[in-house]
Amino acid sequence: MIRYICDLCRREIDSTREVCYHVEIQISAAFEPVTEDEPDDRDHLEEIHDLLESLNQLGDEAYESAHETLRFDLCPQCRRRFLSNPLGRDAGKLLGFSKN
Fold this sequence. Notes:
Blueprint: E1 4-5, E2 12-13, E3 21-28, H1 44-58, E4 67-74, H2 76-84, H3 91-95
Antiparallel strand pairs: 1-2, 3-4
């Protein structure tokens, strides 16, 4: 029998009594589409040089994966919490931090 632990509240999910929900988040880099309108007489070496220069300016971020998938297990209560605020906006308000 597979044991599931909720990745949010860390509670063990009893699969005989409740449903375990799997959440997958896919993160992909947004690339600009290539247009066929560009002239054929462009300088490809210059474009490669510009691309390498921009990669050097980005640093380590340039070598991160362009596609990543995250997977989480959630209990029914945490699933409802996740669906109500999937990006975690206003997390400070939920925790009740003071304004100072």
